[in-house]
Specification:
Elements (H helix, E strand, L loop, with lengths): L1 E8 L7 H10 L7 E7 L2 E7 L12 E2 L5 E9 L2 H10 L11 H10 L3 H4 L2 E9 L4 E6 L8 E5 L2 E5 L2 H5 L10 H10 L12 E3 L4 E5 L5 E5 L13 H19 L6 E4 L4 H12 L6 E7 L8 H11 L2 E7 L1 H5 L2 H8 L8 H12 L4 E3 L4 H5 L9 H10 L14 H7 L2 H4 L7 H9 L6 H11 L1 H15 L4 E3 L5 H9 L2 H4 L7 H7 L25 H13 L1 H6 L5 H9 L5 H19 L16
Parallel strand pairs: 13-14, 13-16, 14-15, 16-17
Antiparallel strand pairs: 1-3, 1-9, 2-3, 4-5, 5-6, 6-7, 7-11, 8-9, 8-10, 11-12
Helix pairs in contact: 2-3, 7-22, 8-9, 11-26, 12-19, 18-19, 23-25, 23-26
């Protein structure tokens, strides 16, 4: 796991080492163990390394034997052992212990077809001096991030937006449609980011950049190719068992110890069961809850799972000031605005685990792959009504996060002018789906290409890497995702309960009665914190914030605060404005400023 950055320049120009170093400095948190730089012709590459596999020999950039290929990579190629055996038989044995070298050797042997052979989570940049092109590649599900920007004399890329801000020739500008999508959807999905001109490399895609700086997208994987299957329970259970065995065995490949985030829910409990079953031993596990709040937590359930499998468990019971003191640092870590309250406790978990480990397992992806969310199984009447009122997505993802009243009262002219942007990524994804897919499969796919990479996995990557910690997500092995998406609906949902197949398969493996507990999710008691005098103080500071004054109607903020104080809504809107105000300071007004993990949030508005 690492940070990567670099650029390819217009012909006749040569890379500036000082700019590469500046980008690397912004990615130091992703790779505290090592740093390397490569300059050849018009291409410059840099990497900051978190050493996990091939500890002594995995320095990057990696070069081919003839020096014509150079690679910087972030992530893990889990099937590198099998691929190395295959490549050795072709006369391309590995020269290091790094799994990333497999990308280099596979490309040398197979060209772009190598992408189909890689199993893992990765983002990489590969300079092919033979062809004069730079290849930017990203894993199938978008587990690892990769951004790029076209500048007057180059195309630059980086693992995080903050590294690109370090070399922009002018002050960054906000992209209005992306900002509006954050406010309404809680994340800014699609290829656009909040910074005008900075874009995401799409998941399952490689961008081929030639010597003239033309970009040629190459999409090597898509869940759209999954075909629905008729399969009975016994066969599906056997196939799931085999897939999880393979995925978990590969995901445990590491030259450093690993641990587990335990939420108390099904997915992390399944990972615990498989780790124990495959002999992971007395590993460390972590869970989180809150003091002084009415909100239920899952500390007891997580402790029960950990005890059942003999883990070295560490429950964290937090005070609300500690949780919300994380707000500035989480905004800095994420780069991209997300109103996912779970970022706050995730940051504390990451810091705690990162002080002891470099790798943790986490259960993201199980709900998307096996239809665990309630939004995948709405009543027919609800689906039809929403589809009638908001056509284009089968009644899915139709309602904005902001109440209509506050959308009209608070958003400034530039945001009101891009109202069509709200659902654009959802509508685009829905239109792509095959006619023979069910409504449930379409909902799963839409989340797999929008909310998963642009929200959930931003949290999993950026919040953990803020503390030099790698998150491994076995449920997002692409073979498991393809399998789950292909299943008939009645193996995913029965009696109004999602993930039916996974539940029945996992039941014998888990502590007795664990599946009978209600799902609570990873909640954060925002309502117990953002109220009363604190809400009033937040409102006053927001009204003075430069970014808020530029993009919102500050005259409506006192009304919003009053609604929040009297329990008439406004919590999401007020919290979203807080995040934007902090983000604006860190990424627009003062790029390069870095909060500490524990701050007074009001000081950063």
């Amino acid at each position: 796991m690492c940070g990567i950055a670099g650029f390819i320049l217009a012909q006749g120009r040569r890379p500036e080492p000082e700019l590469l170093d500046r980008m690397a400095e912004r990615l130091a948190h992703r790779g505290p163990d090592d740093r390397g730089r490569y300059c050849a012709g018009p291409v410059g590459l840099v990497q900051t390394r978190l050493s996990i596999i091939g500890l002594e020999s995995g320095h990057q950039p990696l070069l081919s034997a003839d020096g014509q290929l150079a690679l910087v990579a972030n992530g893990e190629v889990y099937n590198y052992i099998e691929l190395n055996a295959e490549l050795s038989a072709l006369g391309r044995p590995p020269r290091t212990g790094s799994d990333s070298e497999t990308i280099l050797n596979a490309y040398a042997a197979y060209g772009l077809d190598a992408l189909d052979r890689l199993r893992g989570m990765f983002a990489f940049a590969l300079h092919d001096a033979h062809t004069g092109r730079l290849i930017l590649g990203r894993d199938r599900l978008g587990i690892k991030p990769l951004f790029y920007v076209r500048l007057p004399d180059r195309i630059a890329f980086a693992s995080e937006i903050k590294a690109l801000l370090a070399i922009l020739p002018e002050s960054p500008r906000i992209q209005p449609s992306a900002l509006r999508r954050f406010l309404q959807n809680q994340f800014a999905g699609g290829e656009e980011t909040l910074i005008d001109g900075i874009r995401r490399v799409p998941p399952g895609t490689a961008l081929l950049i030639d010597a003239d700086l033309n970009i040629h997208p190459h999409r090597y994987w898509s869940a759209l190719n999954v075909k629905p299957r008729r399969i009975d329970f016994d066969e599906a259970r056997a196939q799931l068992d085999a897939l999880m065995d393979d995925a978990m065995r590969e995901h445990q490949r590491s030259d450093v110890p690993f641990g587990l985030f335990l939420s108390g829910g099904l997915d992390s409990a399944v990972l615990a069961a498989k780790l124990a079953e495959q002999g992971a031993g007395h590993i460390k596990s972590y869970s989180i809850g809150y003091r002084g709040t009415s909100m239920a937590h899952e500390l007891d359930e997580a402790a029960c799972v950990a005890a059942h499998f003999g883990f070295d468990h560490r429950p964290l019971e937090l005070d609300l000031p500690k949780v919300f003191g994380r707000l500035p640092h989480t905004v800095w870590c994420a780069d991209e605005l997300m109103r996912d309250y779970a970022c706050l406790p995730t940051s504390i978990l990451a810091e705690t685990a990162g002080a002891e480990l470099k790798v943790v397992f986490s259960g993201e992806g199980g709900d998307e792959a096996f239809a665990g969310y309630g939004r995948y199984r709405p009543p027919l009447a609800e689906r039809l009504l929403k589809s009638l009122l908001h056509p284009g997505s089968g009644g899915f993802r139709t309602r904005g996060q902001w109440a209509g009243r506050w959308t009209r009262r608070l958003m400034g002219p530039a945001l009101r002018a891009v109202a069509d942007a709200d659902r654009a990524p959802v509508l685009s994804a829905w239109r792509e789906t095959p006619r023979n897919w069910s409504d449930m499969q379409r909902r799963q796919y839409t989340d797999l290409v929008t909310a998963l990479p642009d929200n959930l996995l931003v949290k999993t990557d950026r919040l953990l890497m803020g503390f030099g910690l790698e998150g491994r997500v076995p449920f997002l092995d692409h073979r498991i995702v393809e399998f789950g998406l292909s299943l008939p609906d009645d193996l995913k949902v029965r009696r109004h309960q999602g993930k039916w197949l996974v539940r029945r398969w996992a039941e014998p493996k888990l502590p007795p009665g664990h599946l009978e507990r209600p799902k609570r999710g990873f909640h954060v008691p925002v309502g117990d914190w953002l109220r009363g005098d604190l809400a009033a103080e937040v409102g006053q500071r927001l009204a003075r914030n430069t970014g808020v004054r530029d993009w919102f109607e500050v005259s409506a903020i006192p009304e919003l605060v009053a609604a929040r104080q009297s329990g008439r809504g406004g919590g999401r809107e007020l919290f979203g404005l807080m995040q934007f105000a902090i983000w604006h300071r860190l990424f627009i007004e003062q790029p390069g400023l870095k909060p500490s993990p524990d701050e007074e949030p009001l000081d950063w508005i």
